[in-house]
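Appendix B. Raw example, untouched.
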Amino acid sequence: MKILKTILMSAAMSTSAVGFAADKKENTFGLVYENAVTENVKGKVNIHPVHYTLNGLNIVANVYTPANYDPQKKYPAVVVAHPNGGVKEQVSGLYAQKLAEQGYITITADAAYQGGSAGEPRNVDKPMYRIEDIHGMADFITQYAGVDEHRLGLLGICGGGGYSLAAATTDKRFHAVATISMFNSGRVRRNGYQDSQLNTVQQRLKQASDARAQEAAGAPPVYVGSSTPLTDAQIAALPFELYRQGYEYYGKTHAHPNSTSRYTMSSLLDLMRWDATNQIELIHQPLLMIAGSKADSLYMTEDAFAKATGSTYKTLFKIPNATHIETYWKPEYVKQAMDQLTGFYGQYLK
């Protein structure tokens, strides 16, 4: 099946393990972000690889505990949902660790069918699964020793931000909800990035339908995206800054062997009829949405924030001069995001 060039562009961050830990000593826990935990030391933030079963699938996750963690005490906790194609060892791990440094128990898990978690075929990317992943993390962490289930927060990054909004509409275990660089996966898969593919919606739906029919007939899944690394010239030619910087992040500077933006084309049947802002007015919890002022994805955060009319306490914070991907790693922008998160969770999970 011929796949539209524009669809390939929308998954251009797909990659193998190019550059994984190329310029740094490989981390004991597989973490690829800067200043990550390398070993568990008494009295400091520790990381605990865990696994649990969710709807019959084995889910792998990392739990971060604060310095001098005492399982007999009670701590606030935050569930952290990773971006599309990302894994727990990348940006979600960075923010989970930094929140643990502020005294929170945090959890970030690989989505079902993705990363190190189970599920076949690989890289199915359906909203219902990603939302269930967030509920599942809440199930697990609220039973973890030392967690105060009445002080549970939620943080979603990029695609995980859109799915976090959806999870929070009904899951009132989350008492405070935050997003960073929120990405509305349904809108983008349906309309194209920055609504650039409106004239090909029906053609792409036909491709997704054909892909599902082939799977039902026993053929291997058809994937959107390529695992072949791009050249520097090809990266430079990508149509949006998010894709260009995203490829650098996922394919080079913060690459991880379990991370890929490839997904089954049949997933588009679910993605293209879904939207992160559907029934968003049901979010009554305090809401913080963070995005870079120069992010070409900012329109999605601004749209969702305006539609979140059910939350009395909501804040939109734009990090000056930051792009979408720079909120994942650039120290000065991560610090500004953390300053906002620290005040927000400190107020509403106290």
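End of appendix B.
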